[in-house]
Specification:
This protein is an alpha+beta fold. The protein is built from nine helices and 13 strands. Strands 1, 2, 3, 4, 10, 11, 12 and 13 form an eight-stranded mixed beta sheet that branches. Strands 7-6-8-5-9 form a five-stranded mixed beta sheet, sandwiched between helices.
């Protein structure tokens, strides 16, 4: 796969982040999401690929700018997953953990997945496959503690602050582990667990498509993920079957979500988060903080980019 794809897609996440940051905190949730999707669409359309958009969680929302099914000027067939603005409510309200992500992979290697909730457990490569999603949260926390040679009380578990996680939070507290609650930004929380700097383990329900983004990051950085989709209705099960999923007890792992070792992953922070710092505007432009990784070589770059609008205006 073209080694330049990573730098191409990180330009798209930078433009998306700058666009979102410009209207950050103004309170319009739909506008900030639409504007960011429109901006990343224009940038990705410059790539010399025939990019097939996979797992667009907002594809059915008429009030939100729709990404086309294919992006690019033409060239090799590739899969694209575009999360123009994760945590768009947080960005619109001026809160933390909003980020832009893009993945590029060989055609047919990103698993199409229904827009349903998925329970996930994510850890870094130092922990590996000791977790088991079919075991209780307390057992998984203790297994992580054992591998990391930490007391259970020193293990940090990242969890989305949602009512549906009330019992999960209580069980983790009962076993004595530390908890980092985040309001939005599930992917950032998972990435924090993968690199182990702000959390040791991520647990909880989020959206299934976000699981493919996390799996792509693990392909590039190492780590381990297990996920199970939650099916509440016959419509949910029908949606799964439409995506080729007929085992409703299936445990999804990285290889089930990203079936390739040739991918590039890019992210740019919009607001300060668990994984990246947000956009900072200056008198002459802005500063962005990004991350770009390539799975074939396990190389990654953390980038601080100065944008000078007087010379090359973004807006």
């Amino acid at each position: 796969m073209n080694i330049n794809y990573g730098m191409e897609i990180v330009r798209a996440t930078e433009i998306a982040a700058l666009t979102a940051a410009r209207i950050q905190g103004l309170g319009n949730h739909d506008e900030i999401l639409s504007e960011t999707r429109h901006a990343i669409n224009k940038t990705l359309n410059r790539l010399m690929i025939n990019g097939f958009v996979v797992n667009d969680r907002f594809a059915s929302r008429d009030e939100i700018f729709r990404l086309p099914q294919t992006l690019g000027k033409g060239g090799p067939d590739m899969d694209l997953m575009v999360v123009a603005l994760e945590a768009h409510h947080a960005a619109a309200d001026g809160r933390n953990n909003a980020t832009s992500y893009t993945i590029i992979s060989e055609k047919g290697t990103i698993q199409p997945i229904p827009n349903l909730h998925m329970y996930k457990i994510v850890v870094g490569q130092d922990v590996g496959e000791v977790i088991d999603i079919n075991q209780s949260p307390a057992i998984n926390v203790k297994r992580v503690a054992r591998v990391l040679k930490k007391y259970t009380e020193n293990v940090t578990v990242c969890i989305l602050n949602r009512q549906r996680h009330k019992d999960l939070i209580q069980e983790v507290r009962t076993c004595g582990a530390r908890i980092k609650l985040i309001e939005e930004g599930e992917i950032s929380g998972c990435l924090a667990a993968i690199n182990g700097q702000k959390a040791d383990i991520y647990m909880g329900y989020g959206f299934a498509p976000e699981g493919t983004v996390v799996a792509a990051a693990i392909r590039c950085l190492g780590g381990y993920l297990e996920g199970k989709i939650s099916y509440e209705t016959d419509e949910d099960r029908a949606a799964a079957k439409a995506h080729g999923i007929d085992d409703f007890d299936k445990v999804f792992r990285v290889e089930n979500l990203i079936n390739s070792h040739k991918i590039s992953f890019a992210a740019t922070g919009v607001t300060d988060g668990e994984f990246l710092e947000g956009v900072r505007f200056t008198a002459t432009g802005a500063v962005t903080n990004s991350f770009v990784a390539r799975s074939e070589t396990r190389t990654y770059r953390k980038m601080t980019t100065n944008h000078f609008f007087d010379y090359n205006p973004v807006f």
